[in-house]
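Sequence and fold:
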Amino acid sequence: MTVDSVNRWGWRLLDARTISLVRTGFKSVVAAQDGPARLSRSFYAHLFAEYPDFRTLFPASMDALREHFVLALGYVFEHLDDTDRVEPFLEQLGRDHRKHGISGAHFRAGSSALISAFRAFAGNEVWTDEVETAWTDALTVVSNAMADAADNDELPPFWSATVVEHQRLLDDLAVVRLKTDGEIPYFPGQYVSVQIPQRPKLWRYLSPAIPSNPYGEIEFHVRRVSGGWVSPAMVTETAVGDRWSISPPLGGMHIDRAIREDVLMIAGGTGLAPLRAQVMEMAQRSNNPRVHLFVSGTYPCDLYDLDTLWQLSLSNPWLTVVPVTEELENPWWYSGQPRELPWGMHHRLHGPVGKVVTRFGSWADRQIQICGSPAMVRTTLYALRKVGTPMEHIQHDPF
């Protein structure tokens, strides 16, 4: 945290008493029956009542947005006393919301609506003058941090890109390649949010599967989420020539070369993408740490990119690729040809990837990255923690 941010955003207002009142109030909301949903509905109702023109900035269906809103609030309030963690998170939120057409003024207006929503939820007996002051101070700091980041970002809110190839590898998985109108300055391991013409105003986070390059080429690996709004359209409806929008990069997953430790990467399904991008970038360097990359899926057919990874490992001896599946055989409904492992690759291991990885020990001397579904990340974290892996060695994207 900088001296400027202390003075400009008001972090010094947040003493222990203020933080305690805010956390206690939020936890009581979350614990109440249907509390998170009621809070988010109340917030947006107050916001749109006071600023009707704001409604045009949001999609028709706001279920996912409401859920993410409450999750983000919980993270912020939980870490209000850890400015080194919460300040970058707020700045990232502020910059990311620019893709919706939101500026700093919108964040400050939202702070007022959120206080109104909490006041209505808590009731007069709980909502004392001291509580209101605490919430006002906290949300002033939070909104100022996001507003300042949104108003001072030098990158465009998003880039436009044209789909140049759509390859359906499985019924529920596609590789989409695009050419952007300008170079997107992301680092391998970061993620971006994407909007497609079939689902306007609905943005979804995806990780590029190749490093950034001056030619504007970018690649995404997309798995259809059952019941999802956007991923089914990406997999089944995308056509060459479609125009997508891609926001500036987010996240900070990376290999720290300064500490000179070897690397363990654990991928589940299309969670392979950001790890793949990092490995490809490393292949352009002459000196790299050793990397063990465990690539996992439920069925053998889910190991959709083994040929590429094998070719990378052949020319880069620091890379070891280990395939893992939970099931021995493909499902009955899989109509494709059985995929054989490339000759010479490590034999396929079986079981949940977290349990498979920890059969080899705690990997306590490694930098560790985990990418996959929220369930896969949680179970893998649990397995590593159980064998004594230091949690501070592990990186993963937000759930």
The radius of gyration is 23 Å.
